UniProtKB/TrEMBL annotation:
Catalytic activity, as annotated: L-homoserine + NAD(+) = L-aspartate 4-semialdehyde + NADH + H(+); L-homoserine + NADP(+) = L-aspartate 4-semialdehyde + NADPH + H(+)
PANTHER family: HOMOSERINE DEHYDROGENASE
UniProt-annotated binding residues for NADPH: 103
GO biological process: methionine biosynthetic process; threonine biosynthetic process
Domain of life: Bacteria
Species whose genome carries this gene: Denitrobacterium detoxificans
Entry's family note: Belongs to the homoserine dehydrogenase family.
Protein name: Homoserine dehydrogenase
Alphabetical list of InterPro entries matching this protein: ACT-like_dom_sf, ACT_dom, Asp/hSer_DH_NAD-bd, HDH, HDH_cat, HDH_CS, NAD(P)-bd_dom_sf
Annotated ranges, domain ACT: 347-420
Residues noted as binding L-homoserine in the record, renumbered to the chain: 188
Binding site for NADP(+): 8-15
């Protein structure tokens, strides 16, 4: 049986899929017994289709793909949450399986999409939506399915990991690291989705939904980026035996599930501390398997196309066998723990005037809010010639108490020199 494919979106990843199909279709049939044939290609322009020799299959209307009775699997690679939503839902209603790399779509409408797939007895595969070429959706839904997962931690954005690595290794400023990342093609001209944490938030929403069997949407994820991180913060972290990573975190707690994205001080002994540059890694803790980590390149045409085509072949196998084999998350009804209830340790840096009384007054505010201070360091800073850095490390404290203390400290005389906002980095236990 030949399984027929319709591909929508011929950008970087779509072009990579066309290359894989052209190079390896005969290998798929010979080695795996899976015969797949591309019968429709849809895009806003025909240039990529012509460059790959599939112009005879080309259309500019994705409804032509949905309505083609030959198509068994629709591959959605257009991105976004509007037209992509219409395409995926339309394909499912038309009785077609779907493969997508669209993290924003799955983080926003994933529950609705998977429920429709369940009703129709179809599959929606989305391995490439998280981690690019790193296999993680499959392991969570199959290989680790027998576990009760307690924690999912991820460095899931290569742009910010590259920037933080360069800032730590060379002392580069945020602006310099961003410019270098853009020059090398690791960061977009508009880096907002990466540096403000939204890309990572979409990914941890998907991972948490699967890991904890509870719907988590993008809007449920507390999100904070790396714009306020300075080289002095990275140097201080290193002195204390930590590095700083933008972590996507999902934890199962007694109160429910805690899902967030923010810069985090990671102990240098932790496996994630060794993940540098554009590499990504996802660290999963299960009650039976213990600690596991999935590592690799999280982006790029080859990595993402590899994951997409892996999904295509797996779904095609099921089409040939006349079955579906998708583990669709249910709803255990776990509560989402508000960020204000988080308890962890904190690194907090203020830029203050170098004069008597400032240290005592700030310390008094922490005490008033029941925040126990582990250590305090006052030192000059290369970045802040008009003030000094006052760095606090707390014992375990609650987020709401930290926020209240910082708000009161902001109002003190001699704090926030030159209008510089405090830097807050949560410390991974």
């Amino acid at each position: 049986m030949t399984v027929k494919l319709g591909l929508v979106g011929t950008g970087t990843v779509g072009g990579g899929c066309l290359d894989i199909l052209s190079a390896h279709r005969d290998d798929f049939k010979r080695l795996n017994g899976i015969d797949v044939e591309l019968v429709r290609v849809c895009s806003r322009n025909s240039e990529t289709a012509a460059a790959h020799g599939v112009e005879d299959l080309f259309t500019t209307d994705f409804n032509d793909v949905i309505n083609d009775p030959e198509v068994d699997i629709v591959i959605e690679l257009i991105g976004g949450t509007t037209a992509a939503y219409d395409l995926v839902m339309g394909a499912l209603r038309a009785g077609k399986n779907v493969v997508t790399a669209n993290k924003a779509l799955m983080a926003t409408h994933g529950s609705e999409i998977l429920e429709l797939a369940r009703e129709k007895g179809l599959e929606v595969a989305f391995e490439a939506s998280v981690g690019g070429g790193i296999p993680i959706i499959g392991p969570l839904t199959h290989g680790l399915h027998a576990n009760g997962v307690s924690s999912v931690l991820g460095i899931v954005n290569g742009t910010t990991n590259y920037m933080l690595t360069r800032m730590s290794e060379t002392g580069a400023t945020y602006d310099d690291a961003l410019a270098e990342a853009q020059e090398k093609g690791f960061a977009e001209a508009d880096p907002t989705a990466d540096v403000d944490g939204f890309d990572a938030a979409a990914k941890i929403a998907i991972l948490s939904t699967i890991a904890f069997n509870t719907p988590v949407n993008l809007d449920d994820v507390y999100t904070e980026g790396i714009r306020n991180i300075m080289p002095t913060d990275l140097a201080a972290a290193k002195e204390m035996g930590y590095c700083v990573k933008l972590l996507a975190i999902g934890n199962r707690t007694d109160a429910g599930i805690d899902v967030r994205v923010h810069p985090t001080m990671v102990p240098l002994s932790h496996p994630l501390a060794t993940v540098n540059g554009v590499f990504n890694a996802i660290y999963v803790v299960g009650d039976a398997v213990g600690e596991t980590m999935f590592f690799g390149e999280g982006a790029g045409a080859g990595a993402a196309a590899s994951a997409v085509m892996g999904d295509v072949l797996e779904v095609a196998r099921h089409v040939q066998q006349g079955c579906t084999n998708q583990v669709i998350p249910g709803n255990d009804g776990l509560s989402l723990v508000p960020m204000e209830e988080l308890t962890t340790r904190y690194y907090i840096r203020f830029v203050v005037e170098d004069r008597r009384g400032v240290l005592a007054s700030t310390a008094r505010v922490f005490s008033d809010h029941d925040v126990s201070v582990y250590s305090v360091i006052q030192r000059g800073s290369n970045e802040n010639v008009s003030g000094v850095d006052l760095v606090y490390i707390t014992h375990t404290a609650q987020e709401r108490d930290i926020r209240a203390a910082i708000q009161d400290i902001r109002a003190l005389d001699g704090v926030l020199v030159s209008g510089q906002e405090p830097t807050v980095i949560r410390v991974q236990k």
